[in-house]
Amino acid sequence: MPRAAGIGLEGPQTFNLALKNQAGNPTNAVATIQFDDQPPRFATQLTLPPPSAWVPRTASDGGVATQEIDVAVNDPGSGVQSVVATPDGGVAAALAPKAGGIFAGAISLSGAPAQVAGTYPVTIVAKDQLSNQSTATYLLQVDDVAPTVDAGLDSRWYGVNGMTSATPSVGISDVGSGVASATIFVAGGGSAAAALDGGTPSSGLWTATQAIALPTAARDTPLPLAVKAVDAVGNTITNAAGVTLNFDNVPPAVGSPTLVTVPDGTVGASAWYKGPSVAASNIEIAVPIVEPNLDTSAANAPRITFTSYPGGVQTANTVPGVLQVDGLWHFVVPRLGGKNASGPGTPYTIVAHDLAGNVSANAPQLTLYFDDAAAESFKPIVPADAAWYSRNAPASGFQQIQLGSSAPTRPVSGLRSIAILSGTTAVGTCDVNTGGCALDAKFAPAGAEGPWPFSVVATSNASVTSTAAGSRNVDDVPPAIDNTATIPYPAATAGPLAWGHDGGHFTLRDSGKLFTFTAYDCGAGMSTSRTFSVGGSPGGTSLSVASAGTRSCANGQTAAVYSYTISLASGFGGASIGSYPGADNGVSVV
Fold first, then answer.
1. Residue 367: exposed, middle, or buried by beta-carbon count in 10 A (0-12, 13-18, 19+)?
2. Which string of DSSP letters, residue by residue, matches 369-384?
3. For domain 148-247, is the CATH number 2.60.40?
4. To which H or E segment does residue 498 belong?
5. For strand 203-208 and strand 169-173, is the pairing parallel, antiparallel, or unpaired?
6. What's the whole-model pTM score?
7. According to the CATH classification, is domain 253-372 in 2.60.40.10?
8. CATH fourth-level superfamily of 44-143
9. Centroid of chain to Cα 148
10. pLDDT tens digits for range 241-258
């Protein structure tokens, strides 16, 4: 029987034979022949693990894992001789026959790539007794990659408003068999681990199923977490680096404000500013704010708050700040009038938020004072005074010119000063409490004769000035004697004649004569109550005075003119002789 007769056949085949002997006698026979021209057949693919399962490359002890392979193989012909499993790049392993046509054995996964999750081919070769063989390739799902932890999936802030515990979330993903379990706890201890739950088998947001304790000590820096995540085949990651919670339980610290706009005045520690009716510019304030997690969003950026009363209506005001290159937050607020300028001061509070929601202390850091009084409202009072004052009084000091009370209506900030100015020169001051003041006549110009103008300037503590004009009559010029007077022998040096003006003096030869002259004064006017003496003794002389009309003066005054007549009796010179300038015996009008 030719072998070709069994091509493709497996098992016993029956053949009918027609036989003849040498004599040609026929005979019939039946023959059965066993053929095996088919390789063994796999009843199923690998039964453990199923094709969709994942297996680990690394064993729990850290070594290379092995994988049990079970194969159901049958060969109805000559029977199965051997089954060999060879992992890609690994060592072939013969599978041993088990009951029910199962061949089983363990293969090493040492050839599988490390730190990779993916398919890994295993070649199965089965041979029958005639060495017919069949080959099958199975793709194992080998996972040698631990889960990864994403620190950024939980963007919430923790620690605000006394928060002492929380159920944070962590993003965990796995590229292979999927996340099986996870736990989380605060790094460094202090809290029991909390199990995490959630997410898909491969990745997602895992949230603590029980609260973990949070630090209670002051902290405004990220809170590190420890995370342990295990995938379905046992790959594990512990204490993933960089996993933190946003944590801040410390409110922003607002420092002491600085007044960039210099106060118009100060009273003790109180800063005073002119109100809006007397000044236009706003007030700039700079403030340091210490907060590493400062919220600078439009809704929560640092701002300054204060209360005003426009039209008498209480109004809450909020002005946002701007961070400048000096590192300070700058706020610009308006000047205030009305009730804000009534004296008690306006408190200002700088409010800052951090990203966690903590808010700075709700207490004013600054109080400003406003004075909106117009200058006219506290204009100094300068009483009228028609009296005449002498500038030259060397024996008793310069005469004091009394101004009386110059106290105006006091502005709300109070008065800083009341100054008396002659032109632009300060020549006196007034008491800011009583308003009383006196002006020293010596500050009037030498040779003054007539009204001396000055001004009284009151300045409030908010640097508003109010000025009133005034004047006082000052006479620093003696009366003038008519230069046509018939007084002989003019003196060579000054004498006491006519209020210090020496028109001359007399000698003994003038006995029995009359001498007449006129005099006037363009200031306080003439005094006609004078004496005439000879050598200190008026014996034998007389002086008569008569009005002689008026005359106009250069300073605008109208002066009364008087005529003076000196009569020297025949007995002139009989008295003791006095000594006068010029060393000549004589008489003077004093």
1. middle
2. EEE---GGGGPPP---
3. yes
4. helix 497-500
5. antiparallel
6. 0.69
7. yes
8. Immunoglobulins (2.60.40.10)
9. 41
10. 678 889 999 999 999 999
